[in-house]
């Protein structure tokens, strides 16, 4: 099949993942609107944000099994349909419980798309291009993060937050049809009737993946890095800049936009470097060290330009942890790759479910009781403590990466 057709199919799956990232990070700009609409505290807002990740994280292992069984095309199409229904419900929710459940449905819908895309890459691209294409897929998700910052903020000003989210739902529905019509699971020369694995084979594969120490190390790394970075960029980054530096939400969203540009650039850069150098875990260690620097810097509440640079570096360095998916793929046969990536992705997004509520509780503890436009404002001291927690998480992530490097390097000369 021509290269152009292969890239078109990847582009549709990448666009689906872009949409997933848009929805999981949009609450940063939506924070004040949601706080007013549902009368939430910081902890409650963190729980609402996390509802996406509770379901998303819990379903990563089942998602891997489903992709291994049914293929990327069917899994991604059904995911987009379910996510679109959830988006429509969230945009029209009249209460906090309804919004919580609707955002959970969005997480349910988005849960298989990344795993489906990785399985597609394993079938359609050479092994020495896998990390590069994975990086480009993450970069596409970064564009979704960018769209969920300043562009969304101005759209909300123009038409309101509910209409803005409904419009994104329409895009998801159209994309579901395009994925079904265009995407194929494997090249024609390799296409065969998919024989679902037996229950005993699924159980054996799952036991193999869960029985490896390396699986848990990669999962712990993602738990810490994704958990903290997605919390700051996806929820509390905009309120931090708006509260501490006393700027508008639109202005604050510009700094989070800069952070998401780091996602667009970081994952492809680390992917290309990894494929060219044949190195995985050393780059992951480097990314962890950068995270420590970022959150220690933010804890000092530096000048605004430094905040922008720090947020950019945080998401740029976060690109290094996506190499864990390449390590997982290289450790297992193709039929098990969905299960392996699903397990470690699950642990990563459990971090994204836990950290928002933790950070929200820290900020609530330092809340003075003041509100602006009905939304609570938080103190500098609260943000300092939260970022010090982030620095500790980054340090732990770096140490986990060192442990992973030690174990994997004993198996092969170069990792």
Structure write-up:
- It is a single chain.
- A two-stranded antiparallel sheet has the order 1-2.
- With 415 residues, it is mostly helical.
- Strand 1 and strand 2 (375-376) form a beta hairpin.
- The mean pLDDT is 86.
- Helix 8 (130-147) runs antiparallel to helix 13 (249-277).
- 82% of the residues lie in helices and 1% in strands.
- The radius of gyration is 20 Å and the shape is globular.
- The two termini are 32 Å apart.
Set down the secondary structure blueprint.
Layout: H1 3-25, H2 27-38, H3 42-58, H4 60-70, H5 72-92, H6 96-110, H7 113-124, H8 130-147, H9 150-159, H10 161-182, H11 199-210, H12 213-245, H13 249-277, H14 281-299, H15 304-318, H16 323-330, H17 334-365, E1 371-372, E2 375-376, H18 380-409
Helix pairs in contact: 1-5, 1-7, 1-8, 1-10, 2-12, 3-6, 3-17, 4-5, 4-17, 5-6, 5-7, 5-10, 7-8, 7-17, 8-13, 9-10, 11-17, 12-13, 12-15, 12-17, 12-18, 13-15, 14-15, 14-18, 16-17, 17-18
């Amino acid at each position: 099949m021509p290269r152009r057709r292969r890239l078109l199919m990847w582009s549709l799956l990448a666009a689906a993942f872009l949409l997933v990232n848009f929805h999981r990070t949009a609450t940063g700009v939506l924070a004040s609107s949601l706080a007013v609409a549902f009368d939430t505290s910081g902890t409650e807002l963190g729980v609402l944000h996390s509802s996406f990740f509770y379901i998303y994280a819990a379903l990563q292992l089942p998602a891997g099994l489903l992709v291994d069984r049914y293929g990327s095309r069917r899994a991604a199409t059904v995911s987009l349909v379910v996510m679109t229904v959830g988006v429509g419900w969230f945009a029209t929710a009249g209460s906090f419980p309804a919004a919580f459940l609707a955002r959970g449905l969005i997480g349910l819908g988005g849960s298989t798309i990344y795993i489906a895309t990785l399985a597609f890459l394993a079938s359609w691209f050479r092994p020495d291009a896998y990390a590069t294409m994975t990086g480009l897929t993450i970069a596409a998700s970064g564009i979704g993060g960018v769209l969920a910052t300043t562009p969304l903020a101005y759209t909300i000003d123009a038409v309101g937050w509910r209409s803005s989210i409904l419009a994104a739902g329409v895009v998801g529905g159209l994309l579901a049809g395009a994925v079904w019509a265009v995407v194929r699971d494997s090249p024609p020369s390799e296409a065969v009737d998919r024989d679902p694995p037996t229950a005993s084979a699924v159980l054996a594969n799952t036991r193999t993946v869960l029985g490896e120490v390396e699986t848990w190390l990669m999962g712990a790394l993602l738990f810490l890095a994704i958990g903290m970075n997605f919390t700051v960029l996806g929820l509390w980054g905009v309120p931090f800049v708006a509260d501490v530096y006393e700027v508008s939400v639109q202005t604050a969203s510009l700094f989070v936009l800069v952070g998401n540009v780091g996602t667009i650039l970081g994952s492809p850069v680390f992917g290309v470097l990894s494929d060219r150098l044949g190195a995985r875990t050393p780059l992951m260690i480097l990314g962890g060290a950068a995270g420590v620097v970022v959150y220690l810097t933010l804890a000092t509440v530096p000048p605004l330009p430094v905040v922008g640079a720090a947020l950019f570096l945080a998401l740029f360095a976060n690109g290094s942890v996506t190499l864990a998916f390449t390590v997982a793929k290289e450790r297992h046969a193709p039929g098990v790759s969905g299960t392996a990536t699903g397990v470690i992705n699950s642990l990563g997004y459990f971090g994204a479910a836990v950290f928002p509520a933790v950070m929200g509780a820290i900020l609530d503890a330092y809340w003075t009781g003041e509100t602006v436009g009905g939304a609570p404002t938080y103190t500098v001291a609260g943000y300092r403590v939260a970022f010090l927690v982030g620095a500790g998480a980054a340090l732990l992530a770096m140490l986990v990466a060192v442990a992973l490097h030690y174990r994997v390097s004993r198996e092969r000369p170069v990792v």
